[in-house]
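Q: Okay, next protein. This is Flavin prenyltransferase UbiX from Candidatus Marsarchaeota G2 archaeon ECH_B_SAG-M15. I've checked the sequence twice, so it should be correct. Can you predict the 3D structure?
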Amino acid sequence: MKLVVGLSGGSGIIYGVRFLEVLRELGVESHLIFTAAAKKTLVLETDYTVSQVESLATRVYGVGDIAAPPSSGSFKTDGMVVIPCSMKTLAGIASGYSDNLLLRAADVTLKERRPLILVLRETPLNIIHIQNMLRAAQAGAVIAPAMPAFYHRPKTIEDLLNHQVGKVLDLLGVEHNLFERWKGAKQ
């Protein structure tokens, strides 16, 4: 499997880091596009360095490299995940405003009818955010907000991260054991 992974500047960059870690553990080829805002958020929200995160990916592209392989539909992938997806990135995707490689790769993913999963991390939402989510979903994107579940009784932040990452992997059909699945209420 080969995935494009976009890290944008929304809070919750740790979701993207954990996603890359799991892809590496599972042997999934990852093509990373890391925005400047995401790099700044990484430093503000975690103890990871940019080089540590980049080392998790199979290949890394500069966000300004509009001629990189993910900019073309002839670059075959199994989909793209933007994790986290900022409201700015969502707006660009929803309007087809492809002025950088992350936005272009998302546009290509949609036009080629490949899975595009947007892990939004924002609250509260205004009407513009909601309209952009609707437009992106109508174009074929899956909106998968970072909303932790608690039925599996998480004990750590990693439990919460694994649940969200696992939900994204489920959407892509990737087998994993990141969280305990719901088996119904205990009697």
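A: Here is a summary of the prediction. The chain has a mean pLDDT of 97. The longest helix spans residues 157-172.
Q: Noted. On to the next one.
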